[in-house]
From TrEMBL:
<keyword id="KW-0732">Signal</keyword>
<protein>
    <recommendedName>
        <fullName>Fe/B12 periplasmic-binding domain-containing protein</fullName>
    </recommendedName>
</protein>
<feature type="signal peptide">
    <location>
        <begin position="1"/>
        <end position="25"/>
    </location>
</feature>
Length: 425
C-alpha cells in the first residue's frame, strides 16, 4: 500500500496532553478503562444475552434493548425501531419487518453501504468494520482508509438515488432521514445530538449492527475519559476571567454567531466563554454600516475568533479574506487581531479536499477539545489537528493530508486496548 495509515489518531491527543499535565496521567486512566470492559460485562447478571452489550450513557437520540438472540434499537431521529436478529437465530429466517415504525435486519451485517455525501464514515473506521463497507455514494471522503478501500476495489461507488442497486446491501446507512428509500435503509443521526460526547456515542449504535459492542464500548470509554480529563484540566487553567470567544459565520452578506449547542459545549468544556447569547441573537448585514458598527462593538469584547465561513477552496481563505469580510484592517486594535487568534476548523483535509471536521471530528471529539484548549491557553507545544490560525498562517499542504498528522487504519486498530497500552510508554 502506498499510503501508510497510522491509526494513533486519538492517541496523539491523549499523549500530548499527558505530557502537558503529567499529574492527570490520562494514559493509565484510559488504558484501565478499556481493559476493564470485558470483566465488567462478565460480572453483569441477567438478562441472558448471547453476546456483549452496549449501554447508552450520554446520547439522547437512541436506546438499545437486548434479547437473547436479538436487539432492538429505538432511534428518536427517525422515530423507528430497528429489530436486529442474530443470523444464527430461528427468528432471522422467518421474520421480516418493514413498516413506517419498525424495520428488521439480520446481523452481523454481511455487508453495508453508507451515504457518504452526508454521513460521517469515521465511526465505521473506528469500529474496524471497513472490510464490510461495500458501497459509498461519494468518494469525496476525508478518510484515507476509506479511499484506500475504494481504490483497491473492496468498496464500490454507488448512485445514492438508485434504490434498486442500494437494495443489494444488507444495510444502507444514511444520516438524512428524508432519504429513506428502502427496507434496508438505517438512519444514524449523531449530528442531532446536543453535545460532542453524545455525538461520539453513536459508535455504539452502529456497533450493534456488526456485533462490535466490545469494540464500540472500548472506543467510547477511551474517548470519553480523555475528553473529561482534558475538560477538567481546562477548567483548572481558567482564571477568574475566561477567554471570550466569538464563533461566527458569514453567509450571503450576513454575519451571524453560531448557535449550535455542540459548538457552545466545546467552548465551555475547553475553559472559555462564548459571547453572551443575549447580544448575539442577530444577523449583521456587511453592507450596512450601522450593522457593522454593532458587530464591531461586540467583537471588541472578544479574545478569540472562530470563523466557520464556508470556503469552496479552504486554502484560499486567508487572513485578508476574513478581514475584508468583517471590514477591518490588519492594524486594527481588536484584541484577536493584535493577539493573532483567528481560527478555522479546516486544517485537516482529505485527499479529495473534504474537511475531516465533518467526519473524524464527530467521532473523536477529544481531539477537537485538545485543539481548543491550545487555542484558548496557548503553550506553543501542541500541534493542532483541526484548527488553523489564520493570523499565524503556517505553510499548508493543500489537497492532501499533512503527513505529520495522524490517520486511522482499521487494520492497526483491531485491538484498541492493547494499542492504548503499548502507546503508553
Ligand atoms: C453468521 O454471520 C457470521 C459472521 O459474518 C458468519 O460467519 C456465519 O456464517 C453466519 N451464519 C449464518 C447461519 O448465516
Ligand atoms: C442515479 O439513479 C437515478 C435513479 O435510478 C437516475 O435517474 C440517475 O440518472 C442516476 N445518476 C447517475 C449519475 O447515474
Ligand atoms: C451482501 O450480503 C448479502 C447476504 O450475504 C448478499 O446476498 C449480497 O449479495 C451482498 N451484497 C453485496 C453488494 O456484496
Ligand atoms: C487542579 O489544580 C489543583 C491545584 O493546582 C491541583 O491540585 C489539581 O490536581 C488540578 N486538577 C486537575 C484536573 O488538573
Ligand atoms: C444588506 O444591506 C444592503 C444595503 O443596505 C441592502 O441592499 C441588502 O438588501 C441587505 N441585505 C439583506 C440580506 O438584508
Ligand atoms: C468599512 O470600513 C470603512 C473604513 O473604515 C468605512 O468607511 C466603511 O463605511 C465600512 N463599511 C461598512 C459597510 O461598514
Ligand atoms: C494576548 O494573549 C496573551 C497570551 O496568550 C494574554 O496574556 C493577553 O492577555 C492577551 N491580550 C489580549 C488583549 O487579549
Ligand atoms: C513541551 O513538550 C516537551 C516534550 O513533551 C516538554 O518536555 C516541555 O516541558 C514542554 N514545554 C512546555 C512549555 O510545556
Amino acid at each position: 500500500m502506498a499510503v501508510a495509515c497510522n491509526c494513533r489518531c486519538c492517541l496523539q491527543g491523549v499523549l500530548l496532553w499527558a505530557a502537558l499535565w503529567p499529574a492527570l496521567s490520562p494514559w493509565t486512566t484510559v488504558a484501565l478503562a478499556a481493559a476493564a470492559v470485558p470483566a465488567k460485562l462478565k460480572a453483569a447478571p441477567a438478562p441472558v444475552v448471547a453476546g456483549p452489550v452496549s449501554r447508552v450513557e450520554d446520547a439522547r437520540m437512541f436506546q438499545i434493548y437486548y434479547g437473547q438472540s436479538f436487539k432492538v434499537i429505538k432511534n428518536s431521529g427517525d422515530g423507528k425501531s430497528y429489530l436486529l436478529m442474530q443470523n444464527t437465530s430461528k427468528m432471522a429466517s422467518k421474520t421480516k419487518y418493514c413498516t413506517g415504525r419498525i424495520k428488521s435486519f439480520v446481523i452481523p451485517l454481511a455487508n453495508f453501504s453508507v451515504d457518504t455525501t452526508a454521513s460521517p464514515v469515521s465511526f465505521f473506521e473506528l469500529l474496524g468494520v471497513l472490510e464490510n463497507l461495500k458501497g459509498i455514494t461519494s468518494n469525496q471522503v476525508a478518510s484515507e482508509c476509506v479511499l484506500q478501500s475504494y481504490t483497491s476495489g473492496n468498496t464500490q461507488l454507488v448512485n445514492r438515488t438508485d434504490a434498486q442497486t442500494l437494495s443489494q446491501f444488507s444495510a444502507q446507512f444514511i444520516s438524512n432521514i428524508d432519504e429513506d428509500k428502502g427496507c434496508n435503509f438505517a438512519a444514524y443521526v449523531p449530528l442531532e445530538e446536543d453535545t460532542p460526547l453524545q455525538r461520539a456515542e453513536w459508535i455504539k449504535y452502529l456497533g450493534t449492527f456488526t456485533n462490535s459492542e466490545d469494540r464500540a464500548n472500548a472506543v467510547y470509554d477511551a474517548i470519553k475519559r480523555n475528553y473529561l480529563c482534558l475538560s477538567k484540566a481546562a477548567a483548572n487553567l481558567s482564571t477568574r476571567f475566561k477567554p471570550i470567544v466569538a464563533w461566527i459565520e458569514y453567509t450571503q452578506g450576513m454575519w451571524t454567531f453560531v448557535k449550535e449547542s455542540y459548538a457552545l459545549q466545546y467552548i465551555t468544556d475547553a475553559g472559555a466563554e462564548i459571547v453572551d447569547a443575549t447580544i448575539t441573537n442577530k444577523r449583521f448585514n456587511s453592507s450596512d454600516s450601522e450593522d457593522m458598527d454593532n458587530f464591531h462593538a461586540i467583537l471588541c469584547t472578544v479574545d478569540v475568533v472562530i470563523d466557520q465561513t464556508y470556503a469552496l477552496e479552504p486554502a484560499e481563505y486567508k487572513l485578508s479574506t476574513f478581514l475584508e469580510n468583517i471590514n477591518v484592517s490588519h492594524d486594527s486594535c481588536f484584541s484577536f487581531v493584535s493577539n493573532r487568534s483567528i481560527w478555522r476548523f479546516d486544517k485537516r483535509i482529505g485527499a479529495s479536499g473534504t474537511l475531516d471536521w465533518y467526519d473524524g471530528a464527530i467521532s473523536q471529539p477529544q481531539l477537537v477539545l485538545g485543539d481548543l484548549i491550545e487555542v484558548f491557553f496557548p503553550t506553543g507545544n501542541y500541534t493542532a489537528i483541526y484548527f488553523r490560525n489564520l493570523a499565524k498562517e503556517h505553510v499548508r499542504t493543500h489537497g492532501a493530508y499533512n503527513p505529520a498528522l495522524p490517520m486511522m487504519n482499521p487494520d492497526e486498530h483491531k485491538d484498541f486496548s492493547s494499542l492504548l497500552a503499548d502507546s503508553g510508554n
